[in-house]
Queue: 4 jobs
Job 1
Amino acid sequence: MSNAVIQLLVLAGIAIFLILRLKSVLGTREGFEKPDVPAETPDPRLSRRSFEVIEGGPDRDITDHVPEGSDAAKALAAMKRAEPAFNVTGFLQGARGAYEMILMAFEKGEIEKVRAFLAPEVYEAFEGVVKDREQQGLTVQAEFLGLRELTLAEAEFDNNTRDAELSVRFTGELISAVRDANGTVVEGDAKAAKKQRDVWTFARKMGSADPNWQLVATGG
């Protein structure tokens, strides 16, 4: 056997030895393996109690509008028991639209359009004013500019009859001018805005199939 062949056999033996040695040190992992991460110790301050929903607290739909525990709050809660779908915030949104609609109908002498939203005695009072203006030859120029205040002033509920009354305080801003038959302004100002302050009381029988509230009283 030549010296060259002997040298190749020796080198091959050394290479095999090194490969086996490396495998014993490095192991046989394939691809990328993430290092082991120690498990986090749970925070003792966090418990099941932290995620429990607190029930039986104050009804924000009521306490956002009247003091908690007040007579008005108790009346509103009774209304909700009589009619679970009733919502104070939703009522006030409806009252906002009703105020502008009824006020402008009255100013323009068009109260017949809103008759369904007026109690008979309120309709008669409005109608009397409108007819009196017509007899004097007066007309009203009016433009509603918006509401500056809308708050729930009072709430009453009769558990026996299920009759509910809600009084709302409005502060509106409008332009209103009364003109005589010649077109002369005799009241108000056709160019300057004025504040209109009212307290209106709406009534309805809770649980009734008719969802509409009626205006039963007006005041300042």
Job 2
Amino acid sequence: MSKKKGLIGLFYIAALCSQSLCAQTRQMGIEELFRLADEQSKSIQTYRTETEAANEALKAAKAQRLPDVDISLSASYLGNGKIWDRDFGNAMTVDMPHFSNNFALEARQVIYAGGAIGSGIKQAELGKLLAELDLQKNVQEIRFLLVGHYLNIYKLDNHIRVLKKNMELTEEVIANMQARREQGTVLKNDITRYELQKEQLNLQLSRVKDTRKIANHQLVTILHLPENTEIRPDTSLLEQQVITLTEEEWQEMAKGNNLLLKQTQTAIQMNEQKVKQERSERLPHISIVAADHLEGPITIEVPVLDNNFNYWHIGIGVKYNLSSLFKNNKKLKQARLNVRQAEERHQLAQEQVENAVQEGYVNFLTAFTDLRTQENSVKLANENYDVTNNRYKNEMALLTDMLDASNMKLRADLGLVDARINILYNYYKMKYSTHTL
């Protein structure tokens, strides 16, 4: 019997754990979020791999400066030859050595290619830079996404705290009303209306908790933490000192750090190198050539000489593609248009970044104004609630007045929490706009 009870107990504990009651609570700050994302985010790892591939592409481009070396070795069976007159009469068989060998070693070093090799290396360097900028930009995007989920959880936790506090006040009011009902000074209908408000608060609390679960799951998924991890924001977050720069200072910070501007500027340089590469096609390519050949037998003699023949040479080779004079014009024009398009995109990006910073700064200032307004609203709502509560206790106010005061206090408390979190959100949004997260 005791074993049966023990098994039932273990089953009960397992059931509780399956309902996330055994969730692992982990308190962390924003900096730890960023560190975990850098280490474990699949998105960041993808861009990091792309950067490594771009680095290998740069090495491959630099390898084009090295000489081209070809080596060939062959052995074959030679059949006997035939000799005819010019009218294909008087055929005669020529005995041939049946073993043939051929060995060749050739080396070619380009000394001038019209700048094609240098341009290719520069493009690879710019490609690596673009990959690094893509990685940095993805890091900024992931961090801002994490901040959004993190602050949302902080906001929802405060909503839960405020709702629970208001439920406690509601329960106190209900208890007082029940006592007064026993004295015959309060109708049951009045208690029912407050109990209805309590149920509405319970429903609202349940919805907020469910929303928090969703936000927590999204955050845990991005960080690749165990599924049962429950993240608790740093309670001192709202005490963080927010840097209040001027709009001009934020704009200068964006000009120096915004990755979109760096990407579009790099794209201009990339297209300029492509123009140089197209120009190089219209210039001669000069290289030093060296070769050594070993062949046998010597078949240019009759009878055939069953000997090995070795010869070598060294010299300078010049190659010029005459067709590029009339074929390459369109490609060169296209490359120049791509440069102009890249410059226009850079100018457009400058406008977009400037507008984003200006909009973010205005919203940042508005968040401070909203906070001051909400602080005054909470103060007035608390005063109104205390006065209305006292009047209601002294039978000088209606139940509807009490309900209005309670709802006003709840909205004010929630608004204050949101206003405080909103300042931090807009601050981090400014850092994201300037890519200084």
Job 3
Amino acid sequence: MTKSTAPEAVSSVVKVFNILEALGQQKEIGVTELSQRLVTSKATTYRFLQTMKSLGYVDQEGEADKYSLTLKMFELGSKSLEYVDVVALADKQMQYISEQTNETVHLGALDDHSIMYIHKIDSSYSLRMHSRIGRRNPIYTTGIGKILLSDHSEESIRHLFSDIKFEKSTPKTLENVEQFLAEIETVKQQHYAEDNEEQEPGLYCIAVPVYNRFGSIIYGLSISFPTMRFDQKRKSYYVRLLQNAGKKISEQLGCEDYPI
């Protein structure tokens, strides 16, 4: 029987966070002082520090015995806060879209090789899209996925899809990166993306971008309709509704030039 390493692993995690907390309390600290605080041998403390240094979370001044935190922890925390902030900022706009359409409204972000829903307002109808916050879907089957990659270069998109296998969710699902790139060209021209039964049969979605202060697309905002309820004559209204909301959210994130 293989011996469990769980207690040892948990102990290691605790040591890492104790080191981070200690380094966060002062500008820099030496191995000797840190090991005394943690009641851990210098050799063990040194190994942890060197590993954290290799990962970019700890900095060492030359070959000196002094260590300090890098900005990577700040960056990590900022990313987490960004998600929390944008949900609060987007909620009012998403609620308004929901009131005007009675349909499902999503806010999504790129997460590795997928899109992840980070906020959702449910449709008031019993027949609606089944989804949940935290759920992931393929980039190539969703309007949000297409809009999130619409400001990426062809080289960047090809690199991203080099590790992705296109799988058919429906007969309309895109089959390869060439089809995806052709779709992205249309998205760039019209400033919105569509999922026309590519993720689920009988489901149509429209998505628009949300920009940060640097002018990069970091979120996608969408409305999802059962195709039987989608009114093609009102499509321009739905797009404008989404774009106005996307513009207001983007402005609150520091974007000064929303492209509509």
Job 4
Amino acid sequence: MTTLFKKKDDADARSVRRELRLTREEDHHIRDAAALRQLDVSEFIRRAALGRKAEVRFEIDLILMLIEVVKDIRALHSAVVATGALPPEEQWQPVISQAVAAMLRIEK
């Protein structure tokens, strides 16, 4: 039986730790950048330092934006049904702006 993955040699295992001092702002920026790429912070820093790719997966960001738009539209729909009247323009406009922003990002 063949195995799909080989166990790394002990010499190749990640056993070295480095301490890194950052400002709170730098830490926040790095965490956000790693999360956007769906990587843990260590992997993101390792890739950045070694010149490896750490691409942003925009399709995931787009899907999450559209999910938020759908949630907002459903909440407004519930308000319309409950009151029997249309919500004021200031409630509709942010939802429409979110939808337009998501659609424009998809076009690119």
